[in-house]
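re: the backbone from monday

yeah here it is again, tokenized this time
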């Protein structure tokens, strides 16, 4: 399975927004800088996420983006589907049906089962899970005392 650059950037951007959720709006420039994503490309990614109903935005100097739902309600699968649509690497129809079956080697069932397994994982993980994991790692690497 390969995640597109658009899919990876979408997950990074959504994780950034989930991490900075206490603010009402997060400017695109800040997301791009923190996540090392070219701003022009990030604009396309955020537009797809907005069309997918995962973000809202406000234009202008005080504008920015925020999540439409709590991080615990947004799955990684929903993010990938919003930006990659039917080309998401785990959705049925996006796997190996090139030129039909050859010499009885119809692999459709195999690709379908693999897609279902991957979909099960990405649909189980939420932004809330990712934020919690990142916080656990931060706490584990912080020194217990300062000298």
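seq for it, each position gets an aa:
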């Amino acid at each position: 399975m390969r995640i597109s650059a658009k899919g990876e950037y979408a997950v990074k951007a959504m994780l950034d927004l989930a991490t900075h959720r206490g603010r009402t709006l997060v400017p695109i420039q800040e997301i791009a800088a923190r996540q090392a994503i070219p701003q022009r490309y990030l604009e396309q990614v955020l537009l797809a996420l907005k069309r997918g109903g995962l973000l809202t935005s406000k234009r202008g100097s005080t504008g920015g983006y925020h999540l439409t739902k709590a991080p615990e309600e947004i799955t990684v699968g929903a993010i990938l589907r919003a930006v990659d649509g039917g080309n998401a690497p785990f959705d049925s129809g996006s796997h190996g049906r090139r030129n039909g079956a050859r010499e009885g080697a119809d692999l459709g069932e195999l690709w379908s089962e693999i897609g279902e397994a991957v979909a099960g994982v990405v649909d189980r993980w939420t932004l809330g899970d990712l934020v919690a994991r990142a916080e656990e790692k931060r706490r584990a690497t912080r020194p217990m005392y300062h000298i």
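The chain has a mean pLDDT of 86. The two ends are 46 Å apart (CA to CA).
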